[in-house]
Design brief:
CATH superfamily of the largest domain: 2-enoyl-CoA Hydratase, Chain A, domain 1
Strand content: 5-15%
Shape: globular
Distance between the termini: 34 Å
CATH topology of the largest domain: 2-enoyl-CoA Hydratase, Chain A, domain 1
Number of domains: 3
Radius of gyration: 28 Å
Structural class: alpha/beta
CATH architecture of the largest domain: Alpha-Beta Complex
Number of strands: 20
Number of helices: 30
Strand order of the largest sheet: 15-12-11-16-17-18-19-20
Bound molecules: nicotinamide-adenine-dinucleotide
Length: 708
């Protein structure tokens, strides 16, 4: 028997199972661990004189982080019967735990999610630590699944159907306090008292026998009227449809199982759960979302691989504009002392205020939390003189996008900062090597490229210049980790990674307008594909002036394949800059500032219109996504990033590429190279931007895929 679950006894009559996976940072419920549990339960069942069982984790700060997803991946191609069997096995195992002839208590400190939460709710009672990282939840919908080991049967019986629907279809974890309030757990205590509290609870329950009453109650269908069920079904389904836009089937399937199972006995409800689970397991969305999970996991491991000897404890920000403010407020949220400057004193003053407001923003209050503002204020200071940056370990320049201005800033900084300090630019377009060329120590210089709005966008591109040292890269990784963002390492090149992939997609959208397709039609197809907004509206959100500038940079780097649009330049000249001027491709002159079609746009388009076509949705989708895909192939060939997974994660985190597609290249693999080449063939008359790249041709020849 492996050594994950250890049995010990407390006070002679209480058994304790300690789950502690050897060599792992967190416990996961692999097939082996479940087998072990099965054997322990078998033995416990037959023992005389036991009053109770406590299940704890041997890992402080984590109870159980869920099932073993690598085993899930290995079973993706299993047939329906096999999937139903796997679900049934887990469910019956937990049912065995639930039926032990004495009271069972899960004593939970830290993360308790997925399969771990299903194990916990199979116990009669749960006690949790009040630590901030104690979280309970069912995140399975984020993987295109729902709890399949009895979770949909037991949760509504413990906390009621409404709460169960919210927890399981929403996939969000809840805190100890919320779990107590909901009735999911009995009590929340300090971590060091967890075991004593569990023992005490077993004593109480043994005396009152109330756990047996609950077992009887939970063995029956839920008491809810047809009306109540149908009201819940309709309202929850409406909400889910609105959230998922029909792209994610798991939450609706979970709702059906929860409602359907509520009027059945647990055994029949469990069978329903397993049967429905077999519909989701291995589906394209499940596969894609598992890929996204592994992309994120890989990214976290890359973090850990970069060890730094220069921890970042004091950051300087040059420029108090949109980005400077965003970066500074993100620092403050992670309690990182920050000094910020600007050449314009008014801008600095307003910027400082806005940083504090952004940093102390509370979602509940829908505005700044005053206590937080007061607590964070001492961490922010104005850099009235360049010498104020002398104590910074990292200075990020976020001044205007002009090379001479930035070079001048860095040469001044080099005079005052510590020789070990890291210097970074947030430039969107200027090559890192160009800015490094005038530095005495280019090895400590790099790009740290945030996305707008910084508060919401998790991605940060860490851009390596030719001379950037590994130590500088490691320090940047450590900083990005500290502010809880996701870094991706990129080699310098026009548009770096995300903007380089985005621009071909956006400029192709303009080409479609010039072929007579309306902005609404273009945006509709992109949204149907799953993009958070269409490319034309994205122009308006980014600002047409900013987009025109980025387009110019890309068009001059790649003149053969990025058509620089005079249409966008004309709109900029006419003062139609997008949302910020309430008018761009769309008009925003309405109460809710929603994008509305604007007939005054037509003359601008007519001036350059090439034809009047009405292509089908498939063609529009191809025209948007294929240029992005081809650019991704070139980016890999040029080793701007090393792995297709970097492209996929960056697009998901940087532009909201739909996770249910698994990533751009993951999606391409689901299409297959042969089909992509066939599609490209159709658009050859449009010029070299649709030419298959070397990588595509090679994959076609070898039969390989982007992902290995
Ligand atoms: P912004 O115009 O809002 O802010 C720039 C600020 O820099 C201004 O307040 C200006 O007064 C100040 N400034 C100019 N010269 C300075 C100097 N010598 N010292 C100190 N401050 C100086 O611009 P922004 O949108 O915040 O962009 C800043 C940088 O971030 C640019 O390089 C831009 O390309 C990059 N960027 C912007 C975005 C975006 O969406 N806005 C996204 C990623 C990166």
């Amino acid at each position: 028997m492996s050594e994950t679950i250890k049995r010990s006894d407390v006070n002679g009559q209480i058994a304790k199972l300690t789950i502690d996976m050897p060599g792992k940072g967190a416990n996961i419920l692999s097939g082996d661990v479940l087998n072990e549990l099965d054997q322990h339960l078998d033995r416990l069942k037959g023992e005389d004189g036991l009053k109770g069982l406590i299940i704890v984790s041997g890992k402080p700060g984590t109870f159980i982080a869920g099932a073993d997803l690598r085993e899930f991946v290995a079973s993706l191609d299993a047939d329906r019967e096999e999937i139903v069997g796997l679900c049934r096995r887990g469910r019956l195992l937990f049912a065995g735990l639930h039926e032990l002839p004495f009271v069972t208590v899960a004593a939970i400190d830290g993360i308790c999610v997925g399969g771990g939460a299903e194990l916990a709710i199979a116990c009669d009672r749960r006690i949790v630590s009040d630590a901030a990282n104690t979280q309970l939840g069912f995140p399975e919908v984020k993987l295109g699944l729902f709890p399949g080991w009895g979770g949909t049967v037991r949760t509504p019986r413990i906390v009621g159907l409404y709460n169960a629907v919210e927890m399981i279809t929403g996939g969000k974890s809840i805190s100890s306090a919320d779990a107590v309030e909901m009735g999911l757990v009995t009590e929340s205590v300090p971590a060091e008292r967890l075991l004593d509290a569990a023992i005490h609870l077993i004593e109480q329950e043994t005396e009152s026998q109330s756990f047996l009453e609950d077992r009887k109650k939970w063995a029956r269908p839920l008491k809810m009227s047809e009306n109540e069920l149908s009201f819940l079904g309709v309202t929850a389904a409406g909400f889910i449809e609105q959230q998922t836009k029909g792209h994610y089937p798991a939450p609706l399937a979970a709702l059906e199982v929860l409602i359907g199972g509520s009027s059945l006995d647990p055994q029949a409800a469990g069978e329903l759960e397993s049967e429905e689970m077999a519909n989701l397991f291995g589906s394209p969305v499940n596969r894609a979302l598992l890929n996204v999970f592994f992309l994120t996991d890989r990214n976290k491991k890359q973090f850990a691989a970069h060890q730094t000897s220069t921890p970042i404890e004091h950051v300087g920000i040059v420029g108090a504009g949109i980005m400077g403010q965003g970066i500074a407020s993100t620092n403050l949220r992670s309690h990182l002392p920050t000094v910020m400057n600007d050449t314009v004193s008014d801008v600095l003053q307003r910027g400082m205020q806005s940083v504090l407001e952004q940093a102390s923003y509370s979602r509940n209050l829908k505005g700044p939390d005053v206590d937080q503002t007061i607590a964070l204020a001492p961490l922010l200071s104005p850099g009235l003189e360049i010498t104020e940056f002398q104590h910074c370990d990292l200075v990020i320049e976020a001044a205007v996008e002009r090379s001479e201005v930035k070079k001048n800033i860095f040469s001044k900084l080099e005079e005052v900062v510590d020789p070990k300090a890291v210097l970074a630019t947030n430039t969107s377009t200027i090559p890192i090597d160009e800015l490094a060329s005038s530095l005495a120590h280019p090895e400590r210089f790099l790009g740290i490229h945030f996305f707008n709005p910084v508060r919401k966008m998790p991605l940060v591109e860490i851009i390596r210049g030719t001379k950037t040292s590994d130590a500088t890269i490691a320090a940047a990784f450590a900083y990005v980790k500290k502010i809880k963002k996701s870094p991706v390492l990129v080699r310098s090149g026009p548009g770096f990674l995300v903007n380089r992939l985005l621009l071909p997609y956006m400029s192709e959208a303009i080409e479609l307008l010039l072929e007579g397709i309306t902005p609404q039609a273009v945006d509709r197809v992109a949204k149907q594909f799953g993009m958070p907004m269409g490319p034309i509206q994205l122009y308006d959100v980014v600002g047409l002036d900013v987009a025109a500038y980025a387009e110019k940079t890309m068009a001059s780097a790649f003149p053969d394949r990025i058509p620089q649009s005079s249409l966008v330049t004309d709109l900029v000249e006419a003062g139609r800059l997008g949302q910020k001027t309430e008018c761009g491709f769309y008009s925003y002159r309405n109460k809710k500032r929603r994008a509305e079609s604007d007939p005054t746009l037509n003359p601008f388009i007519d001036k350059y219109k090439k034809q009047d076509r009405d292509p089908d949705a498939e063609e529009i989708q191809d025209r948007l996504m294929l240029p992005m895909l081809l650019e991704a192939c070139r980016v890999l060939d040029e080793q701007i990033v090393e792995d297709p997974r970097d492209v996929d994660l960056s697009l998901i985190l940087g532009i909201g590429f739909p996770p249910f597609r698994g990533g751009l290249l993951f999606w391409a693999d689901t299409l297959g190279v042969a089909k992509i080449l066939k599609k490209l063939d159709r658009y050859q008359s449009l010029g070299s931007r649709y030419e298959p790249t070397r990588r595509l041709l090679r994959l076609a020849e070898t039969g390989d895929t982007f992902y290995d």
